[in-house]
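Q: Hi! First time asking for a complex rather than a single chain. Here are the components, and I think there are two in total. Is that enough to go on?
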Amino acid sequence: MNKIVTRFPPSPTGSLHVGGARTALFNWLYAKKHGGTFILRIEDTDKERSTQESTDTILDSLRWLGLSWDEGPFFQSQRAEIHWSFVQRLLNTGHAYWCACTPEELEKKREMAMKTGGKPKYDGACREAGLARRPGAVVRLKAPMTGVTSFTDAVKGAIAFDNAELDDLVIWRSDDTPTYHLAVVADDIEMGVTTIIRGDDHVSNTPRQILIYEALGERPPFYAHVPMVLGADKKRLSKRHGAASVTEYREMGYLPAAVLNYLARLGWSSGDQEFFTLTDLVEKFSLENIGRAAGVFDPGKLLDLNGEHIRATPTAELVAPFALHMKRLGIEISDEKHTLAVIETLKIRSKTIVEMAEKALFYYKDPAEFDDKARKCLVPALAAPVTELLARLKETDFSDHSRLEAAFSAVMEAHNLGFGKIAGPVRAAVTGRTASPGMFEMLSALGREKTLSRLEAALKLMA
RNA sequence: GGUCCUAUCGUCUAGCGGCCCAGGACACCGCCCUCUCACGGCGGAGACACGGGUUCGAUUCCCGUUGGGACUACCA
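A: Yes, that's all I need. Here is the structure of the assembled complex.
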């Protein structure tokens, strides 16, 4: 078999959608798995809606996800000569013709056809007219009117369309630009694309494109149509369903690995395995295991998976994203070793890096206030033991958990208290809340100085 | 309307004729662990859309019905 070439062709009309990201991932995985090439092509032929900003965020999202491309990015808008040369090939071989029907006329005919129960397709008025190029004219493909166009889809199996259902589609516009179908086919041929993995909203477009390949005398590529990603209401996923773009997940503190893992599992599976690293995915991915039905995007499951990835990621790799989100909270991270200790205490209790950053705040700033439940832990009855603990802690080595533990034990014994009793006010004093990492690892990461000053401050409230 | 695609717990899915009175994961509900919060462990509730076939035997194959989706542009 020849070398595999896949491609991801986003339109720069917005940010990278999670559905698009999944398509990109599948193409990337398939290329990687087979030692092939993954091409990035920006389909910016719609001048009205394409923006440079969109292109930038799409590239940015792809980089963040780690889906690097081997070739490109190519910009379709810069390839007009190539597209035109394909149209000429078609014109010269009699597989295409100039059509002078105006959009208004066509619209009228469509309406008429609809009313009389006919098909709203082009009636072929100029098909045999032998028109020459003229202002305002378009080029149409001279498609077969009978027969069947079929293909074998890697995920859906055999699919066939009656050519009678298709019409002579426009391939070159009156403003001298190619239409989508022509541009895609021309570019895919020209770039040597062998396998097209795309959303199944393109299934009905496939026969039209195959017809172009055939008219050109080229062999169509292999197709794999991946089912759509839906929102909770089973409608196509959009902004209305909440976060739908990759950048939003980055902002919310998700790890690329988790997003990729989730996206891969939405519509694809490998037995009962749920957790995958990128390496796993490359190894296990296959078109055959892509499901056929559309799937609902479940933010809750992504969240859980993100927590799993955070736990599975070496702490050192969490420092950069953590520092980024701390910075947004106004905290500048400098001491790497200390940061490692901080993250270590928060890893298993954070589902996102944003959550981790918020939970880490108390390590850097004294609690400005105590929440209600924490306030209730600061009772006068416990002032004495806390005072004694404070005294002992002054002499304790904070880097050693067992020393900290010994200090607590001594106080517990002297005052005949359970650990929970003494931990309550300490936790409240140190964090301002009633939820925190384990006491000793926390105090150790916090350090003696801050611990002591916070206990002193809390003691005043306990009097 | 026409054409095409599609249908297993609320959600993502395993299942590729008997291993399934259907397995895993998220969410949910109990219990356990426990200094809090998490993590983890154990248990519970929860699905083969419906109707016909084919077959000794259908979740699995075929045909309908119904539901969902896509396409039907000089948008991609």
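A: The longest helix of chain A spans residues 18-33. Let me know if you'd like any chain examined more closely.
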